[in-house]
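Batch 3, record 17
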Amino acid sequence: MSGSDAVSARAHVSVEPLSLDRVARAVRDPRAGALVTFCGVTRDVELLEYEAYVEMAEERIAAIVAEVAGAHGLCAAAAEHRVGEVPLSEPSVIVAASAPHRPEAFAGARALIDRVKAEAPIWKREVEHGERRWVEGVRP
Amino acid sequence: MSGSDAVSARAHVSVEPLSLDRVARAVRDPRAGALVTFCGVTRDVELLEYEAYVEMAEERIAAIVAEVAGAHGLCAAAAEHRVGEVPLSEPSVIVAASAPHRPEAFAGARALIDRVKAEAPIWKREVEHGERRWVEGVRP
Amino acid sequence: MEVTVRLFAMLRERAGAGEVTLELPEGARVGDAIRGLGEVARGIPVVMAVNREYAAEERVLDAGDELALIPPVSGGGGHP
Amino acid sequence: MEVTVRLFAMLRERAGAGEVTLELPEGARVGDAIRGLGEVARGIPVVMAVNREYAAEERVLDAGDELALIPPVSGGGGHP
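Prediction for the assembled complex:
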C-alpha cells in the first residue's frame, strides 16, 4: 500500500511533558499491523531530575532509532526523552516501534529502550524530602 | 509507596474508537517504572469489520488480564477491543501492562495480546472494494 | 429438552440466523449438541461455549445453559 | 593546544563548573585528556565524547574538537 520503503525515524530530547499518543502517531504506517510502546515512568520517589548533554543525546538517540528500525524490520520508530523534573507516575522516556507483525514490534521496542538507556548521555537524580541523589548508571 | 497490593485490571469491548492514552492511564501505578502497550492496527486493507460475542469476550478478556497480571507480577493491566468497522491505520485492540521494571512489563504485554488473540470470541473480515472475506482464525 | 445455541461470524451467515434451537435428550452433552448442529458447523473446527466459558465435549448440558458455537477466532488487529 | 571539555551531572558538580580548559601537547589523545582531568573523574568510570560520539582512548585530538567527559549514564525512567 505504501509508495515508499522509507523508515520514519524520530528522536527528541526536551523539557516538555511527553505524550504517548503523539509518539504513537509518529510511527503510524499503512504497512504496520502492530505498534508497541514503552514508557519509563518515575516510580517510588517524589520526582526524578534529568540532565542531558542534549545535542549529543538527540544525535545518539536518532542513530539508535535508525539502527534498530533497520535491524528489526520496523515500519517506523521513534524515541523521546524528557529532561528537568519528572514527577511520580509521569513518563521520562517513551519509545515506539511499528511493524507488520507482533514479534518485530516487541523486539524493536525492547531494543530501542535498552539502547537509549545504555547509550544516551543522560543522567538522573532522585529527589525526596528535598534530598538529591545521583542514580548509579552504566558506562556507555 | 502504595497502600495496597491490589492489581488494577480492566477489560472492555465496544464499538467506540480506542485511545492509547486512556488505556495507559488505566494502568498508572506509583510502583510502576515501566509501561508497555501494544496496539493491533488495521493494515494493508481499507477496513476490518469485527464481530464479537461481546458478553463472553469481555469476561474472557477480564480473566486473561487478571491471570496475566498475577503470572507476570504486573502492577496493573488492561485490554480493550473495538468491534464494528476499523479503518486502515486505526487500532482494533490495545493492551497495556505496567510493572516495576522493563522485563515484566514487556513479557506481560506480549502475553496479554497473545492470549486475547487466541481466546477471545471475536472475528474479523477484511473489506476491500466492497468485498468481504472472513479472516482465517485459530481454534480457541 | 430444548436448547438455544447462539451463532457468530461465518456460522451465523451460513445458518442465516443468530441462533438455532435444538431438541436434545435429558443428560445430553456438549458433543451431542455439536453433532446436532452438524450442517451449520460442517468443515469448521468449532468449540462450544457454555455459560460464556469454553466447554469440553463431555460436559453435561442443562436446560438453562447459555450456549454458543464458536468458530476459529481472529480478534486482535492486523493481518492474520 | 588548549581544549575545552564539557562536564555533566556529578562531574559538573564536583568541578563546580560546566566545562574546564586543558592545555595539551599537539597530537594528544583522548586518554591524555582523561588523565589531565584526573581529579574531576577520580573513581568514576568515564568515557570521552569527541564531536558528540563516544571515542576510544587512542583517538588523536584536534584543537577544534567538541569534547565532553561522560560519567555512567542513567537515562530512561524508573529506578535503577
